[in-house]
Amino acid sequence: MSVRVCDVPFNLRKSKFVELLGDKVGSFLELDVERSLTKGKFIKFKTSIDVSRPLLRGSFAQGGDGKKVWVYFKYEHLPLFCFHCGCMGHIAKDCPAVDDDDFMDPRLFQYSDELRASPLRRPQLLHNYGAPVTKVKWKLVFKPAGKDIGQRTGPTDDLSPGGLTDETPTARAEMVHPRHVPNATPEKTWV
Protein backbone atom coordinates (compact mmCIF):
# COMPACT_ATOMS: atom_id res chain seq x y z
CA MET A 1 0.00 0.00 0.00
CA SER A 2 1.25 3.51 -0.76
CA VAL A 3 1.51 5.86 2.20
CA ARG A 4 2.01 9.61 2.17
CA VAL A 5 3.81 11.25 5.07
CA CYS A 6 2.69 14.86 5.43
CA ASP A 7 4.18 17.84 7.29
CA VAL A 8 7.72 16.44 7.27
CA PRO A 9 10.29 19.17 7.97
CA PHE A 10 12.98 19.49 5.33
CA ASN A 11 15.76 18.56 7.75
CA LEU A 12 14.09 15.14 8.24
CA ARG A 13 13.61 14.35 4.56
CA LYS A 14 16.21 11.60 4.39
CA SER A 15 15.80 8.10 3.00
CA LYS A 16 16.83 6.49 6.32
CA PHE A 17 14.09 8.43 8.15
CA VAL A 18 11.51 7.34 5.55
CA GLU A 19 12.58 3.70 5.95
CA LEU A 20 12.11 3.95 9.73
CA LEU A 21 8.62 5.40 9.24
CA GLY A 22 7.80 2.68 6.70
CA ASP A 23 8.84 -0.01 9.18
CA LYS A 24 6.69 1.65 11.83
CA VAL A 25 3.61 1.55 9.54
CA GLY A 26 4.31 -1.99 8.28
CA SER A 27 7.23 -3.39 6.32
CA PHE A 28 8.98 -0.75 4.21
CA LEU A 29 9.21 -1.77 0.54
CA GLU A 30 10.38 1.22 -1.50
CA LEU A 31 10.57 4.98 -1.63
CA ASP A 32 8.64 6.65 -4.45
CA VAL A 33 11.44 8.27 -6.45
CA GLU A 34 9.01 10.51 -8.37
CA ARG A 35 8.41 12.38 -5.13
CA SER A 36 11.80 13.81 -4.31
CA LEU A 37 12.92 14.09 -0.71
CA THR A 38 13.73 17.75 -1.24
CA LYS A 39 10.46 19.04 -2.69
CA GLY A 40 6.75 18.42 -2.60
CA LYS A 41 4.12 18.56 0.10
CA PHE A 42 4.64 14.99 1.25
CA ILE A 43 6.91 11.95 1.04
CA LYS A 44 5.46 8.81 -0.50
CA PHE A 45 6.57 5.23 0.05
CA LYS A 46 5.21 1.71 -0.39
CA THR A 47 4.82 -0.65 2.51
CA SER A 48 3.09 -3.93 3.28
CA ILE A 49 0.55 -3.61 6.07
CA ASP A 50 -0.87 -6.21 8.45
CA VAL A 51 -4.64 -5.77 8.02
CA SER A 52 -5.38 -7.14 11.49
CA ARG A 53 -3.52 -4.23 13.14
CA PRO A 54 -4.95 -0.70 13.40
CA LEU A 55 -3.76 1.88 10.89
CA LEU A 56 -1.38 4.49 12.23
CA ARG A 57 -2.68 8.05 12.04
CA GLY A 58 0.78 9.54 12.42
CA SER A 59 3.97 9.50 14.42
CA PHE A 60 6.28 11.76 16.36
CA ALA A 61 9.64 12.40 14.73
CA GLN A 62 12.64 13.93 16.43
CA GLY A 63 14.67 16.38 14.40
CA GLY A 64 18.36 17.20 14.66
CA ASP A 65 17.58 20.09 17.00
CA GLY A 66 15.91 17.73 19.50
CA LYS A 67 12.37 19.00 18.90
CA LYS A 68 9.62 16.47 18.36
CA VAL A 69 7.27 17.04 15.45
CA TRP A 70 4.06 15.22 14.54
CA VAL A 71 3.90 13.87 10.99
CA TYR A 72 0.65 12.36 9.82
CA PHE A 73 -0.08 9.57 7.37
CA LYS A 74 -2.51 9.33 4.48
CA TYR A 75 -3.13 6.04 2.72
CA GLU A 76 -3.70 5.77 -1.03
CA HIS A 77 -6.45 3.45 -2.30
CA LEU A 78 -7.45 2.64 1.26
CA PRO A 79 -10.13 -0.07 1.27
CA LEU A 80 -12.97 -0.44 3.75
CA PHE A 81 -11.78 0.21 7.32
CA CYS A 82 -13.34 0.68 10.75
CA PHE A 83 -13.57 4.19 12.16
CA HIS A 84 -13.74 2.72 15.68
CA CYS A 85 -10.71 0.38 15.85
CA GLY A 86 -8.81 1.42 12.69
CA CYS A 87 -8.56 -2.10 11.24
CA MET A 88 -9.30 -2.87 7.60
CA GLY A 89 -11.99 -5.29 6.46
CA HIS A 90 -15.03 -4.15 8.45
CA ILE A 91 -16.92 -1.00 9.41
CA ALA A 92 -17.76 0.39 12.86
CA LYS A 93 -21.23 -1.16 13.13
CA ASP A 94 -19.69 -4.62 12.53
CA CYS A 95 -16.63 -4.01 14.72
CA PRO A 96 -15.86 -6.92 17.08
CA ALA A 97 -14.46 -4.43 19.63
CA VAL A 98 -17.88 -2.75 20.06
CA ASP A 99 -20.75 -4.36 21.97
CA ASP A 100 -24.05 -4.40 20.10
CA ASP A 101 -25.79 -2.71 23.02
CA ASP A 102 -23.08 -0.12 23.52
CA PHE A 103 -22.58 1.35 20.03
CA MET A 104 -20.56 4.55 20.28
CA ASP A 105 -21.38 7.97 18.93
CA PRO A 106 -19.57 8.38 15.55
CA ARG A 107 -18.29 11.78 16.69
CA LEU A 108 -16.17 9.95 19.28
CA PHE A 109 -14.42 7.64 16.81
CA GLN A 110 -10.64 7.92 16.67
CA TYR A 111 -10.47 7.34 12.91
CA SER A 112 -12.12 9.05 9.95
CA ASP A 113 -11.89 9.49 6.20
CA GLU A 114 -8.98 11.87 6.87
CA LEU A 115 -6.72 8.82 6.52
CA ARG A 116 -7.65 8.51 2.84
CA ALA A 117 -5.32 10.31 0.46
CA SER A 118 -7.01 12.32 -2.25
CA PRO A 119 -6.04 11.42 -5.82
CA LEU A 120 -3.03 13.25 -7.17
CA ARG A 121 -3.64 15.81 -9.85
CA ARG A 122 -1.97 15.05 -13.12
CA PRO A 123 -0.05 17.87 -14.78
CA GLN A 124 -2.15 19.64 -17.36
CA LEU A 125 -0.94 19.42 -20.92
CA LEU A 126 -0.09 22.66 -22.64
CA HIS A 127 -1.08 21.29 -26.02
CA ASN A 128 -3.81 19.08 -27.38
CA TYR A 129 -2.09 15.93 -28.69
CA GLY A 130 0.32 17.77 -30.95
CA ALA A 131 -2.14 20.36 -32.22
CA PRO A 132 -1.03 23.96 -31.74
CA VAL A 133 -2.45 25.81 -28.80
CA THR A 134 -5.02 28.38 -29.86
CA LYS A 135 -6.41 31.32 -28.01
CA VAL A 136 -10.08 32.11 -28.49
CA LYS A 137 -11.21 35.71 -28.40
CA TRP A 138 -14.44 36.08 -26.51
CA LYS A 139 -17.20 38.20 -28.00
CA LEU A 140 -19.23 40.85 -26.24
CA VAL A 141 -22.86 39.94 -26.80
CA PHE A 142 -25.86 42.08 -25.94
CA LYS A 143 -28.80 40.07 -24.68
CA PRO A 144 -32.02 42.06 -24.89
CA ALA A 145 -34.76 41.12 -22.47
CA GLY A 146 -36.95 38.38 -23.91
CA LYS A 147 -34.65 37.58 -26.85
CA ASP A 148 -32.13 34.81 -27.43
CA ILE A 149 -28.40 35.33 -27.43
CA GLY A 150 -27.17 35.99 -30.92
CA GLN A 151 -29.69 38.63 -31.95
CA ARG A 152 -27.09 41.33 -31.62
CA THR A 153 -23.54 39.99 -31.61
CA GLY A 154 -20.02 41.16 -32.11
CA PRO A 155 -18.01 44.00 -30.73
CA THR A 156 -19.56 47.40 -30.84
CA ASP A 157 -18.18 50.88 -30.29
CA ASP A 158 -21.52 52.27 -29.14
CA LEU A 159 -21.81 51.03 -25.55
CA SER A 160 -23.65 54.07 -24.28
CA PRO A 161 -27.26 53.72 -23.11
CA GLY A 162 -28.33 55.93 -26.01
CA GLY A 163 -27.02 53.30 -28.44
CA LEU A 164 -29.64 50.78 -27.36
CA THR A 165 -32.93 50.78 -29.21
CA ASP A 166 -36.33 51.33 -27.62
CA GLU A 167 -37.08 47.63 -28.19
CA THR A 168 -34.48 46.62 -25.64
CA PRO A 169 -34.93 48.76 -22.54
CA THR A 170 -33.26 46.20 -20.25
CA ALA A 171 -30.43 44.93 -22.45
CA ARG A 172 -27.30 43.66 -20.74
CA ALA A 173 -23.85 42.77 -22.01
CA GLU A 174 -22.41 39.29 -21.48
CA MET A 175 -19.16 37.64 -22.43
CA VAL A 176 -20.02 34.56 -24.48
CA HIS A 177 -17.77 31.95 -26.05
CA PRO A 178 -18.15 32.01 -29.85
CA ARG A 179 -19.38 28.39 -29.88
CA HIS A 180 -22.47 29.49 -27.96
CA VAL A 181 -23.38 32.27 -30.38
CA PRO A 182 -25.24 31.24 -33.56
CA ASN A 183 -23.30 31.87 -36.81
CA ALA A 184 -20.15 32.92 -34.97
CA THR A 185 -16.71 31.50 -35.65
CA PRO A 186 -13.92 31.69 -33.10
CA GLU A 187 -11.04 33.94 -33.96
CA LYS A 188 -7.80 32.06 -33.38
CA THR A 189 -4.44 33.51 -32.56
CA TRP A 190 -1.23 31.58 -32.13
CA VAL A 191 0.30 31.63 -28.69
Automatic annotation (TrEMBL):
Residues 82-96 form the CCHC-type domain. It holds the Pfam family zf-CCHC_4. Residues 149-171 are annotated as: Disordered. Coiled coil: none annotated. Keywords: Metal-binding, Zinc, Zinc-finger. It comes from the Eukaryota. InterPro entries: At4g02000-like, Zn_knuckle_CX2CX4HX4C, Znf_CCHC, Znf_CCHC_sf. One of its GO terms (molecular function) is zinc ion binding. PANTHER family: GLYCINE-RICH CELL WALL STRUCTURAL PROTEIN 1.8-LIKE, OS09G0268800 PROTEIN. This is CCHC-type domain-containing protein. The lineage of its organism: Eukaryota, Viridiplantae, Streptophyta, Embryophyta, Tracheophyta.
